[in-house]
Design a protein that fits this description.
Helix content: 55-70%
Radius of gyration: 18 Å
Order of helices and strands: HHHHHHHHHHHH
Number of strands: 0
Structural class: mainly alpha
Distance between the termini: 12 Å
């Protein structure tokens, strides 16, 4: 599509701009932070983390340090580096305790392997998180927080509670146009061993977001351990080849 090509061209132009800024000043933390964001969005997770780390080391008190910490958490999570992800979430929570990003990473930690939540504390996190996000995004953010918590409840072995919370969190495409809620419910279903349901939800997410989720089937991703044992997974999520 023309729109896609234009967007890709704009991203590449931005990358070249930030690369040039870093070449002139390798300690340009602002440019490094922006470059890390581009790498993360392009699926270059290891590069994103390395670049975000350079940004944080160059200037840990930069105005965008909170965002840099979020990218370090996100990239560590995507790389399956559980201890590193916990480290960066702790650092973000220490420095920015009332930030929605810090509260969200704490919620996400409840869904980590072995990270099942203290239920009352987790619901307090949801309430604090939703109270701090902008009013115009509150309906979606509440649903997102609930379904993340549902994944945490599944990790804790509370399957019935997880399913009930996830059901309450469902919204239509007017609230969730890119299917993020499907993604988190797929993570919950994977935790519960409901692989057929997980793959169905990943398919919905892929269709709505335009992303390819075939790598969820290879056993390498933190969120989808076990899906590699579900034989139809790769065929059902096979990426379109052009």
């Amino acid at each position: 599509r023309l729109d896609t090509r234009i967007a890709q061209q704009q991203v590449e132009e931005a990358r070249l701009l930030f690369d040039s800024a870093v070449a002139v000043n390798p300690q340009n933390a602002s440019a490094l932070t922006s470059l890390a964001h581009l790498h993360l969005n392009r699926g270059r997770t290891a590069e994103a983390k390395a670049t975000a780390l350079r940004a944080y080391e160059a200037d840990p008190y930069l105005e965008s340090a909170e965002l840099t910490l979020t990218r370090l958490f996100d990239s560590s999570t995507d790389l399956g580096q559980v201890d590193e992800a916990r480290r960066w979430c702790r650092e973000a929570s220490r420095r920015f305790p009332d930030s929605p990003r810090s509260l969200k990473c704490q919620l996400i930690l409840t869904a980590f392997p072995g990270g099942g939540p203290e239920i009352e504390e987790a619901w307090r996190l949801v309430e604090r998180y939703v109270a701090l996000v902008p009013a115009e995004s509150r309906v979606f953010r509440l649903a997102e927080a609930q379904v993340i918590l549902a994944a945490g409840l599944a990790e804790a072995g509370l399957g019935d509670s997880a399913r009930q919370v996830a059901q309450r969190a469902r919204r239509d495409s007017t609230v969730d146009p890119t299917g993020v809620l499907h993604l988190w419910e797929a993570i919950m279903s994977t935790r519960l061993g409901e692989y057929e349901k997980a793959v169905e939800l990943l398919g919905l997410y892929g269709a709505m977001s335009g992303t390819c989720n075939e790598d969820a089937c290879d056993g390498s991703l933190l969120w989808y351990k076990g899906l590699e044992t579900y034989a139809p997974c790769r065929e059902l999520l096979r990426c379109a080849r052009r």
